[in-house]
Amino acid sequence: MTDRPTIGVVGLGTMGLGIAQVFAQAGFPVIATDAHAPARNSAKARLAEALQARVSAGKLDQAECDATLSRLAVAGDLTALAPCQMVIEAIVEKIEAKQDLFSALEGIVAPDAILATNTSSLPIHAVAKGLNRPDRALALHFFNPPPAMKLVELAPHQDTNPDATARAKTWTEAAGKTVILCPDRPGFIVNRCARPYYGEALACLAEGRSAGEIDAAMVAAGYRLGPFALIDLIGADINLAATEGMYRAMGQHPRYHPFGALKAQVASGNLGRKTGRGFTFPDAPTAPPKDAEAIALRIEATLVNEAHWLLAEGGTTPEGIDTAMRLGLNFPRGPFEALARHGKAAILGELVRLRAAAPPALKPRYDPAPLLEAT
């Protein structure tokens, strides 16, 4: 296995250029391209600006900056990616566009070259559909911004060659990332298991609690940002789109129910930090309520439950889920660590309580995962 093979990147927006930076800075030759000439033409200057900021901050020396820039070649079209042993696409989240790109690349790169999608929402087996060699396709889901975020979710589909998975993992780890294997399931690990953090907070809001006190309860429990502060950071519109996408992908199960308050927030235009007003932004933090521990237990119980539903589907481990949640969302602990902290009896008891109190349509939201009951 080549120590530092040539990596291809298609798409030179924020994600694509960030992925190119990750590999180039780690010593990999990178060939990158974009269908839009302005993105290609500005790529080197944008990367130089990002790296120079790190030099000015004392986080990178000038020689390493220059070496990183020298490893990135920006190409005019896909044919220049022929030498690449792995190509990562970071283009628009439309399955037809990704399928067309992979089909074109298949006629350019070597037969064993890996085709990796940076998708966070599309099924990998569907992206690979129509390829002559679907066994070379997998997902490498980087988090934004790629140079700063340590986590990469690696999702093969059921027909991915284990050798392709192993090579993708080795090379991405050599680029300094923590790679977590996850199943080809909606949302992979982080986007799937994060849904209860927002959803149960919205359920509390619907019952009359304030966004500020819910956030304060979770901060008191060790979380860097409460659920509403995190929605404000991401953008309510982005959070709603992710929730609705998961709701559809999972057969409209109540565990992914899009709550009315989130829809109303998007309709109001108060999307969070990017618009200047959100659920809690820019208000001063609220003091934790007297029942802060009960709020935290409620939200963590649903996080624990969702993690057990995912674990039962295969393709991951408790340790992988915990690591992904800590690194992907800066959580203080993963759901299995939360289970150990509270104890199984407390988690199951909370789910029973929540189910009994929920309106009929939402009762299945709190059904305990069989794997949780059995552990």
Task: Walk me through this protein's architecture.
This protein is α/β, with parallel strands linked by helices and about 375 residues long. It has 2 domains: about 5-180, Rossmann fold; about 190-375, N-(1-d-carboxylethyl)-l-norvaline Dehydrogenase, domain 2. Helices cover about 50% and strands about 10% of the residues. The chain contains 17 helices and 8 strands. It has helices at about 15-25, 35-55, 60-70, 95-105, 125, 160-175, 190-195, 195-205, 210-220, 225-235, 235-250, 260-270, 290-310, 320-330, 335-340, 345-355, 370-375, and strands at about 5-10, 30-35, 70-75, 85-90, 115, 135-140, 150-155, 180. An 8-stranded mixed beta sheet has the order 3-2-1-4-5-6-7-8, sandwiched between helices. Strand 7, helix 6 (about 160-175) and strand 8 (about 180) form a beta-alpha-beta unit. Helix 8 (about 195-205) crosses helix 13 (about 290-310) and helix 10 crosses helix 11 (about 235-250). The chain starts with 6 loop residues before the first strand and ends with a helix.
Beta-strand residue fraction? 5-15%
Helix content range: 40-55%
Overall residue-averaged pLDDT value: 96
Helix vs. strand class: alpha/beta
The major pleated sheet works out as:
8 strands, mixed
Q: Strand sequence of the main sheet, in spatial order?
A: 3-2-1-4-5-6-7-8
Distance between the termini: 40 Å
